[in-house]
Amino acid sequence: QLQLVESGGGMVQAGGSLRLSCVVSGLTFDNYDMGWFRQAPGKGREGVSCIIKSGANAYYSESAKDRFTISQDNAKNTVDLQMNNLKPEDSAMYYCAAGECHGWGTFPVGNWGQGTQVTVSS
User: Do residues 46 and 39 touch, judged by C-beta distance below 8 A?
Assistant: First the structure.
């Protein structure tokens, strides 16, 4: 059974940093691309970043570009999202999921994790 467990969220001031981590089990990790998504209250879920299964390439939304970095550790089955220079508009519940980086609509393969809350104060 697929399990995704996100952690690392919290409350920070604008300009601060957080590192989110997602532990994946029940899935052949290197058969899927992995992505990070977020959902703010009253808004739809949006893709933030995606890393292809080989780890050779990564993609970012316009809002995440130049501030966030996605990485994966195939030996540990983890996908991390380093978030720097956080802004109040980054406040949201963050989720990881498996899918295909060529389209956000391919996510999730299986289910979403429970998410981890990020709150950025101004």
Answer: yes
- C-beta separation of 51 from 79 below 8 A: yes
CA–CA distance, 49 with 51 (Å, rounded to integer): 7
Region 67-91: what's the mean pLDDT? 96
Q: Where are the beta strands (DSSP E) in the chain?
A: 3-7, 10-13, 18-25, 33-39, 46-51, 58-60, 68-73, 78-83, 92-99, 116-121
pLDDT at 47: 97
Task: Note the pLDDT tens digit of each residue in 84-101.
Answer: 999 999 999 999 999 999
Rounded distance, CA 57 to CA 72, Å? Answer: 11
